[in-house]
Design goal:
This protein has about 350 residues and is an alpha/beta fold. Helix content is about 30%, strand content about 15%. Helix 2 packs across helix 6 and helix 7 runs antiparallel to helix 8.
């Protein structure tokens, strides 16, 4: 049996049936993640919107889950994002990133801690380091001193049209002799060495680098001292969205590194390892619809940590779903958007058929 050019063998039919039953039972869980910094986390602490910002700025966003993703990339025209790694990179993983740099790639490492991130920097031959101590600012901040506001100090593609960058419980960067500070905190900031939330006599008040660029191999590494700059809840702080677009949208391809951050939803993970086929498109479509559903339910209350009052029964209209799909998948033509939205809303309460 064939359906729209896909041979529906018995095993494949069983698989698709099980998949659809699972999606029905689990709902949006198969297409979204609740992990902090997750690429498919549409809540305030996820980075789903970061992928959208990068795509809107012209980058083809790819998820990298193994060294092969780096080796296959056209490094001279690509940027890699390594966001708050929670574990040390293996030798083969670090070698793949180093090879990417040797071929002219750009790697952005964003972290507020000094553990796995600094070990990776050592492996990459980068001498600048994340300090690890919380950076606070009693004068120049957003809301409270734990949200320091930093300003560009050098013209560069990363800081174009950026007047400030807002951190969220970030740290600072100790720049090496070969490192160039692009953004620094204000003269009222300090490193909270004992993490007591206050200024102590042994904690100097001064400016500290928070974004540093250093050459590595034939490419460059950009250190950003707070991965939270890129989360959904921080993108609308002045000018984090523009800063994100500058960093992540300036290349043909953006490689989002999940080698040490494996929070990929089941459907997406399977689709990423499935050959390019109608089946893969089906799986990605299921994940996208789940994500759109989550994003729509949260839109009314804004991006916040306490949006749990949003009910699970809200359902977007077909027109609203088409708008959301068009925004998140600009590569889809109008006919495809309309078809997916129509198929997704035919089971609304009160609909015919």
């Amino acid at each position: 049996m064939r359906i729209r050019g896909v041979e529906l063998t018995y095993p494949r039919a069983v698989f698709v049936a099980v998949l659809l039953v699972t999606v029905t039972a689990v709902g949006v869980a198969v297409g979204t993640s609740s992990a902090a910094y997750g690429s498919y986390n549409y809540d305030w602490d996820g980075t789903s919107e970061t992928r959208t910002v990068a795509a809107d700025a012209g980058s083809d966003v790819e998820i990298v889950r193994s060294p092969a993703g780096y080796r296959q990339a056209d490094a001279a025209n690509a940027t890699a994002l390594i966001l708050e790694p929670t574990e040390a990179y293996s030798e083969s993983e670090a070698d793949a990133v180093a090879s990417f740099l040797d071929r002219g790639g750009t790697v952005i490492v964003a972290a507020e801690t000094d553990g796995p991130s600094n070990r990776l920097l050592t492996d990459l031959g980068v001498a600048s380091r994340f300090d690890g101590r919380p950076l606070r600012d009693g004068q120049r901040h957003y809301g409270n001193p734990a949200f320091p506001v930093a300003t560009p100090v050098r013209e560069s593609p990363a800081t174009s049209d950026v007047s400030q960058v807002t951190l969220n419980h970030g740290t600072s960067v100790t720049a090496s002799a070969s490192g160039t500070a692009l953004v620094t905190s204000s003269a009222f900031s300090y490193r909270d060495a004992n993490a007591n939330g206050g200024l102590d006599p042994a904690e100097p008040i001064r400016t500290y680098p928070v974004v540093v660029r250093e050459n590595a191999g034939n490419g460059s590494v950009i250190l950003v001292s707070d991965g939270s700059v890129f989360i959904n809840g921080m993108l609308d702080r002045t000018d984090n969205r523009q800063f994100t677009a500058n960093l992540l949208g300036g290349s043909d391809a953006l490689l989002v590194d999940h080698q040490r951050r494996q929070a990929i939803p089941p459907v997406v993970a399977f689709a990423l390892t499935t050959a390019d086929s109608p089946l893969r498109q089906l799986l990605l479509g299921v994940a996208l619809l789940a994500a759109v559903g989550v994003a729509w339910r949260r839109r009314g209350s804004g991006v916040a940590a306490d949006d749990s009052d949003t009910t699970a029964t809200e359902h977007p209209s077909r027109a609203a779903l088409e708008a959301a799909l068009s925004e998140r998948r600009p590569d889809w033509d109008d006919e495809r958007v309309e078809r997916v939205a129509r198929e997704a809303t035919t089971d609304e309460p009160g609909s015919n058929g």
